[in-house]
Amino acid sequence: MAGSPRADDIEALWERAEAALASLEPRAREDARALLIRLERAAPPQSEAGVWAARQLGEMLVEESPWRAALLLRRVTSCRTDDDAAYALTGLAHALLGNLAMAIASYRRAIALVPRSPWYHHNVGHLLDVGLGKPAAAVNHLRIAHKERPEEDEIAASLAHCLARLGELAEAERLARYAVSANRTHAGHRQLLEWIEKTDREQATRRAPVEKRRARAKPRRPRVD
Question: What architecture does CATH give domain 11-114?
């Protein structure tokens, strides 16, 4: 068709976009973005070049333009059903848009491809616990994530929050203390630990009057007929 980009033009755009993405030059990101936009528009949507451009552009735009990123990534996953990262990026885009059910569904698709990914499980668990208020549904995902990456303070903190909401305060406090020690500059970890400690004190205070009454109560003399 007259006016259609030639295959060698598309190939040249692709090579330039790849080089810009790999470059460490200060302007490289903006150059890559401009080239990816041109390539995504020029290449046939289902072609290898078109899908690659949509994938890279979706990742680049996910935080500043999550709706645009979600549309680009949907094209990727419709052609590349084995791209777990594309499903995860789709989950992030929908989470940023507030579409939590769609975000969780996308992360579950990623988990189906990489069942032990700590970050996919973490993100599902975090959305279920904090986003939807379903800690019981979240806890297994967060335990898997913590088992796979026990050194990660973010995962430990998320599991601590979930366990605290489920009333497992001793384990929650231990995990929160680890998160604070592992990342002492993270204000959120300190706030989490303080909240767990406060919750534990309040529960202890509520239990104390019952325990004191039990301690004061005299045992009844056994009845002798």
Answer: Alpha Horseshoe (1.25)
Domain boundaries 116-205, corresponding CATH code: 1.25.40.10
| Global confidence as pTM | 0.84
Tens digits of residue pLDDT in 9-59: 899 999 999 999 999 888 999 999 999 999 999 999 899 999 999 999 999
- Domains of the chain, by residue range, sit at 11-114, 116-205
- Token pair listed for 154: 């973010």
Q: How many CB atoms lie within 10 A of CB 138?
A: 28
Positive or negative torsion for Cα 146, 152, 130, 76: negative
What is the pLDDT, as a whole number, of residue 7?
Answer: 76
Supply the angle between the helices 153-165 and 118-126 in degrees, to the nearest 10: 40
Dist CA 225 CA 211 (whole Å): 32
